[in-house]
Write a structure and sequence with these properties.
GO molecular function: ATP binding
Strand content: 25-35%
Shape: globular
Structural class: alpha/beta
Number of strands: 10
Bound molecules: adenosine-5'-diphosphate
Keywords: Amino-acid transport, ATP-binding, Cell membrane, Membrane, Nucleotide-binding, Translocase, Transport
Mean pLDDT: 95
Strand order of the largest sheet: 6-7-8-3-9-10
Radius of gyration: 18 Å
Distance between the termini: 32 Å
Helix content: 25-40%
Protein name: Methionine ABC transporter ATP-binding protein
Number of helices: 8
Order of helices and strands: EEEHEEHEHHHEHEHEEH
Largest sheet: 6 strands, mixed
Length: 234
C-alpha cells in the first residue's frame, strides 16, 4: 500500500537567468512501513523533492498523494495535519539553542496546543526511546552531534508522525555515530511501523538500512527498485 505517491511531479524556479528545473516528471511510490532511500549528487533535486513532499514548496506540475489524498486539494487545516504526520530530520539538527533538550522535544506539541503536562510526559518517553532521558536538562551546545540528532529524532516523533523524512540526517556525523543513528531509525521503523524516507548522497546509508531506493540525477529519477537489485555487485 502506498503511503506517498508522486505523480508527474515537476518544480521549476524562476530566476534572473531564466527558469531552473529542479524536478522533472518524478513518479514514485513509497510504501507504508518501508525505509525508502533517495540518493543523488548535490544539485540533483533532493531538497526540492523533500520540500514538495511536505508541501513547504508548491510543485509546478503533478501531484503529491499522501495516504490516498491529493495534498494540493487539501484545505489549509488538513494540509497542516498532513504535515504534522511527516516528521522532519535535518543535517544540521535545527535545534532551538535557547531551549533545553526537554523543551526542544516539547516544542512541536506546544505548537499543536497539546496540554503541557501531557507534552512533557510524552517528551520524556520519546527521550527514553532515543536513549537521552539523562540529558533532559542539557542545552544543545552541551551535546555531541549524535546526541543532538537523537533529540531531533525525538522531536520529530512528538506529533506522532507516520512518516519520518530524513534530509541528509547523518551527513554531519562521523561513521560510528552514523551507524548508531541509522540503527535507531531502523528500530523506530521496525518497532513502531513508521515509514522512513532517507535523502542522502551517501551510498553507505542506502546499503545500511534502506529496503528500496530511487536514484535522482539532474531533476530525474533515473532508476528505482530494491536496494539488493540496484546495487548488487558484478
Ligand atoms: P540537492 O538537494 O540535490 O542538492 P536542490 O533540490 O537543492 O538539490 O536543487 C536542485 C536544483 O534546483 C539546483 O540546480 C538548484 O540550484 C535549484 N534550486 C533549488 N532551489 C532553488 C530556488 N529556491 N531558486 C532557484 N533555484 C533553486
Ligand atoms: P542543499 O544542497 O541542501 O539543497 P543548497 O545550499 O543547495 O542546499 O540550498 C539551500 C537553500 O537555497 C534551499 O532553500 C534552496 O531552495 C535554495 N537554493 C538552492 N539553489 C538556489 C538557487 N540557484 N537560487 C536560489 N535559491 C537556491
Amino acid at each position: 500500500e502506498a503511503i506517498i505517491r508522486l505523480e508527474g511531479l515537476g518544480k521549476q524556479f524562476a530566476t534572473s537567468n531564466g527558469t531552473v528545473t529542479a524536478l522533472d516528471d518524478i513518479n514514485l511510490e513509497i510504501r507504508r512501513g518501508e525505509i525508502f532511500g533517495i540518493i543523488g549528487l548535490s544539485g540533483a533535486g533532493k531538497s526540492t523533492l523533500v520540500r514538495c513532499i511536505n508541501y513547504l514548496e508548491e510543485p509546478t506540475s503533478g501531484r503529491v498523494i499522501f495516504e490516498g489524498k491529493n495534498l494540493s486539494a487539501m484545505k489549509e487545516k488538513e494540509k497542516r495535519l498532513a504535515r504534522q504526520s511527516m516528521g522532519m530530520i535535518f543535517q544540521q539538527f535545527n535545534l532551538l539553542a535557547q531551549r533545553n533538550v526537554l523543551q526542544n522535544v516539547c516544542f512541536p506539541m506546544e505548537i499543536a496546543h497539546m496540554d503541557s503536562r501531557k507534552a512533557k510526559e510524552r517528551a520524556k518517553e520519546l527521550l527514553k526511546l532515543v536513549g537521552l532521558e539523562e540529558r533532559m536538562k542539557a542545552y544543545p551546545a552541551q551535546l555531541s552531534g549524535g546526541q543532538k540528532q537523537r533529540v531531533a529524532i525525538a522531536r520529530a516523533m512528538a506529533t506522532n508522525p507516520r512518516v519520518l523524512l530524513c534530509d541528509e540526517a547523518t551527513s554531519a556525523l562521523d561513521p560510528n555515530t552514523t551507524k548508531a543513528i541509522l540503527a535507531l531509525l531502523k528500530k523506530i521503523n521496525r518497532e513502531m511501523g513508521i515509514t522512513v524516507i532517507m535523502i542522502t548522497h551517501e551510498m553507505a546509508v542506502i546499503e545500511a538500512i534502506c529496503d528500496r531506493v530511487a536514484i535522482i540525477d539532474h531533476s530525474h529519477i533515473v532508476e528505482s527498485g530494491k536496494v539488493s537489485e540496484i546495487f548488487s555487485g558484478p
